[in-house]
Amino acid sequence: MPTQGNSVASGKLEKAKLISDESETIEFMFNPTELTFDYSVNVNSEAGARTTSGLPKVSFAYRDPCTLSISNIIFDTYEAGTSVLDYINKLKKAVQFSSKGKSAEKRPPFYIFAWGQQQYIRCFVTRLSYRLTRFLSDGTPVQARVDLTLTEIDKSTGK
User: Fold this and answer.
1) What are phi and psi of 29, to 5 degrees?
2) N or C terminus: fewer CB in 10 A for the chain?
């Protein structure tokens, strides 16, 4: 049941964000419509070793980090008449080496993907793809669609 303190009761729209201590927080202009989580486990199968049913014997090696894919994130500055590239450039920094802190020039910044009170994953951006989809008459890009892949990292990583 919603309480008065949460966003459901107040009617306040919460925006999805990538929050970082090492880089700028990236706030989405429009919330995603879908989050795709991918989990997998690596196994080692032993060549020639079979169970009584004929399947290969396997040993479980390790769990891969979770990946979170977010597709068709829309950034739109048409009404403001300004370039959407300001938003895109923030995202580009997410796939470049950090510029401050202990991680400066060693690795990309770490983020927490959060939406409202929910913190989904501690991660870094492993893939950024964007399409510029609308332009002003002078060629200024004013709309973009972005796809992101975020890869989980352990809390002990990078401290």
Assistant:
1) -70, -40
2) N
Please, which residues bridge with residue 146 across strands?
A: 73, 130
Q: Which residues contact 44 (CB under 8 A, 6 or more apart)?
A: 58, 59, 61
| 8, containing H or E segment | helix 7-10
User: Can you tell me the distance from the alpha carbon of 49 to that of 25, in angstroms, rounded to the nearest whole number?
Assistant: 51
Task: Write out the H or E segment, with its range, that includes residue 93.
Answer: helix 85-93
Note whether 128 and 91 are within 8 A (CB).
yes
Beta strands per DSSP E along the chain: 16-19, 26-27, 36-38, 41-50, 56-63, 67-76, 111-115, 118-135, 141-152
The answer to whether 77 and 143 have CB atoms below 8 angstroms apart is: yes
Domains and CATH numbers, the chain: 7-152 (2.40.30)
pTM attached to this predicted model: 0.80
Residue range 63-91, pLDDT digits in tens: 999 999 999 999 999 999 999 999 999 99
Pairwise CA distance, residues 121 & 151, whole Å: 8
- The alpha-carbon radius of gyration of the chain (Å, integer) is 20
